[in-house]
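Researcher: Please generate the 3D structure of the following complex. Treat every line as part of one assembly.
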Amino acid sequence: MASMAKASNVTSLFLGGVCKEEKTKNVAMAKLGFYSPRNLIKPKRKGLLLIASAKNPHNLDMINGKKVNGIFVGEAPYTGKKSTVLIKEHVPYKQAHAASLVGRFVEDRHVYRQTFIIRSYETGPDKTATMETVMNLLQETALNHVRSSGLAGNGFGATREMSLRKLIWVVTRIHVQVERYSCWGDVVEIDTWVDAAGKNAMRRDWIIRDYNTQEIITRATSTWVIMNHETRRLTKIPEQVRQEVIPFYLNRIAIAEEKNDIGKIDKLTDENAERIRSGLAPRWSDMDANQHVNNVKYIGWILEAFTN
Amino acid sequence: MASMAKASNVTSLFLGGVCKEEKTKNVAMAKLGFYSPRNLIKPKRKGLLLIASAKNPHNLDMINGKKVNGIFVGEAPYTGKKSTVLIKEHVPYKQAHAASLVGRFVEDRHVYRQTFIIRSYETGPDKTATMETVMNLLQETALNHVRSSGLAGNGFGATREMSLRKLIWVVTRIHVQVERYSCWGDVVEIDTWVDAAGKNAMRRDWIIRDYNTQEIITRATSTWVIMNHETRRLTKIPEQVRQEVIPFYLNRIAIAEEKNDIGKIDKLTDENAERIRSGLAPRWSDMDANQHVNNVKYIGWILEAFTN
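Model: Done. Output below.
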């Protein structure tokens, strides 16, 4: 996968020492599309545009002889029991303390919000949060959203109606626009919600704010489709499943359409790739709780191509 | 480094599915000693004992042609300005919220305490927090302790008297005893403090508790000595530096001496190693904010030797 990486305008990602001066970095964007035939990377606007993909989903099961799977394990919301964390204006310390570590629903339960402090080991050589950190936090917020919505969740996050049909959600595209990367100790507030995306997909969006200033520092959107876990084939969203998720939909867009790079990009091959990073194989520590390599690791591998 | 790994009793580390049943895993221990001539790994008691080391500290600067450095970047406490986070019994939500994400001093400022929630991506294939996660949280707590003590901190954490002499702290040994690994969503409370270790070293200890039950689930201790940043030679602690750190010392031991494996272990070589994992090279993403590979990554590489 990583050998498909190609881009020319990536130095802005690796500027060092911006934390103390609170400089703003250039916008960086990362996309992945695991089932798209348009597998390539091309610099666009000011920043970095990345796409990694596997044309044939059946190939995702094996990398270097290890059983892995490049899909993002997210879970669809579910209309089951509610488990909202209620925060009152004044609460005893210990309760507030524990409650503030988890997320909570806001805006009539249509938005899930979680606050994080950036840890030292989540920053890279330039002393700011890495793209992997940003995407891990997006994933964490999405998973907590789903879990708090009442989905106990097998790893693949199927709703009840999906489980009956052996269906799982897979991500086909993630688009992240970073305005500013956080530093060690910064507190960020992440909002996430879901909406319909055409007839047979779901969209999950995120907004990351600086907790203190409430400035929006990152916007992200992703597209999810349904796959049969056994046949590995994409399928339409069954009507029963649609009825399960519709109550959670919120008609709001994190990245305005005119700022959303959805244009087709040239196909990337070993021949036209400007940068190739070989020798990358999944480590045991790359495996997640579902014993597969998720999309965040792919982004990390792709970024490895740009670092020498 | 990782090729030195050797152990026979490691399967307990990779038991899956213990999170829902709240089973207790076997004790696992990890040690590192970067300057010790006793570079080896030997199973002891029920669990895993690991030692990784580089006999010659000068060699730590380069791995595969990249400038790296295997030392743990920790910082010594400093008697400068105080920046304690004060928590009252009842506080408005937003303040409590932000405050609860950072650590605070307890026990007359001798112990620094921070609470963490385990994130999904910090767990491994067995669905529990990985050893790297445990050690990252120990590191994070130690760094926040130092920073909250008033050390602005160059990356190497020298006190003022140390900076004047180009001295930095380096870790020579970390011993971690895990009683139980946490699951996604578990809240842990970490206490850390420092004490003298003989005449020319400092000891940093940690206790990890389950936040809800207050049960101790992990104990850890580490030994720190002083090195000249330019000559890479170890040195005695200058009296002026000792005077800076003594006010922070707390005479308390996380791992009782009779439970602390300090016995000498046979030297490990390529010949007597039972397990060797080759092909591990630092990735760009292995670099920390000091542009070097810290001890936690070494532990990760060592553990890679046991996973096939």
